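Entry for the shared binder. Reason: the reviewer on the internal report wants the predicted structure included alongside the sequence.
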Amino acid sequence: MADKIAIIGAGMAGLAAALDLAVAGAEVTVIERARTPGGKMREVEIDGRRLDAGPTVLTMRWVFEDLFQNAGTALCDHLRLQELAVLARHAWGDQCLDLYADIDRSADAIAQFAGCPEARRYRHFCSQAQQAYETFEGPFIRSPRPNVVSLVGRIGWRGLGSLWRSAPMSSLWRALGDHFQDPRLRQLFGRYATYCGSSPFACPATLMMIAHVERAGVYIVEGGMHRLAACLETVARARGAVFRYGVEASAILVCAGRATGLVLSTGERLAADAIIVNADVAALSEGLFGRDVASAASAPSPAQRSLSALTFNLVAQTDGFPLLRHSVFFSNHYRQEFDDIFGRRQLPGAPTVYVCAQDRDDREPAAERAAAAPAERLLILVNAPATADHHPLSEAEIAQCERHTFATLERSGLRVKRCERNTIITTPATFHRLFPATGGALYGQASHGWMASFRRPGSRSRVPGLYLAGGSTHPGPGVPMATLSGRLAAASALSDLVSMRRSPRVATSGGMSMR
């Protein structure tokens, strides 16, 4: 008889787990409180046009190719991807620098922007970032939850030099100071810390590996990022997985110390041989799935939370600045930005602003086409504190940050002709409602300090039969990492169920229908 496995949450981790488990022959039911899959990979609609309202880039393509290949199909059979030659355009007032996937083109651009010595330093930085990634990919990223001892053991003596050169005990900001003298380049590469919801002044220098991940390939998904989630659901359904939307898991049932099923918001009970929770681990510890599993995993304290965000999805005409698909407008007071967010727990007074122009790619539009450009789809984002559950932002604070945000864009010449009717604002309070127990944090625990990555829970919880997946668990946040976490949870559950069947003294769940 097939194993019955319930998954709470149809985010990327839940979708990946559902697909792997269905391929393995398990009877999979996914419970999702929203009406669509994707979790943080959200869409919104303005004037009949769909906009990405969550992640906007696809990296680490191999993660998704492996996932689809394991299901007997191919990523390219379901999605069309466009690789970007220009990773992003970066602006400091009237100064501008494009970063390319090609290291030589980037070095040339940096030489013109900051001088030849900085271009040489950039090449050395890329070498260090690649070494850091190659050191950690197998022993950490692809592996079940490692600790310091197991990581060193997997790296081996030959890898210790690369580990040490990645400066795990140093902050990213300090390490960037060893690589670059131009403060603008430190800002640019320090920005990668925010990709995992952290401050470059507090996260370890090993996060420089993100620079290599981007240089290895940044892709646009035709039709929007949400297409990836929809395709995973389609393939999982074809392999037998069942998806139930608009239904919440009210409680996780525990019998004889083992997770045995779910109680749904409808009152229905579902039996399960294993349960995977694709939600922030804080939802467990705060009792949102019942007292019996509240101690299943340790969640970070509010002070340890990652970044939240204040976002503006809008359809508007723009002019005055040559936007590409991804553009970043830097603050003049970079340290203050993170002191405001993580220290004072307030919106930054001088925010750095990210703009995703979703009708553009990495090519400059022709002058005549740019002059006649229609209203375009934009996602504008600034980082924010994750305090929505105990110190929600006031309307005045949000309005002030909005003024600062668009003033930063105008400082570089970008004018956005917006109107309230065509704008959707998402605050940390919105994210907290969508993803309960987070305070609006989008990445779980901030990666502050060299031990932070080892404090994330792994796939197995403290309750047998209950498994964890998502950006708040190992190996970390972001679309590819969350996807890997789902696959790790699925593999752990299958392995444990095989072991359980070999032991006649371990009871299985029963007595409830799994429909």
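Summary line for the report: The chain has three domains: 4-42+224-301+449-502, 102-216, 307-434.
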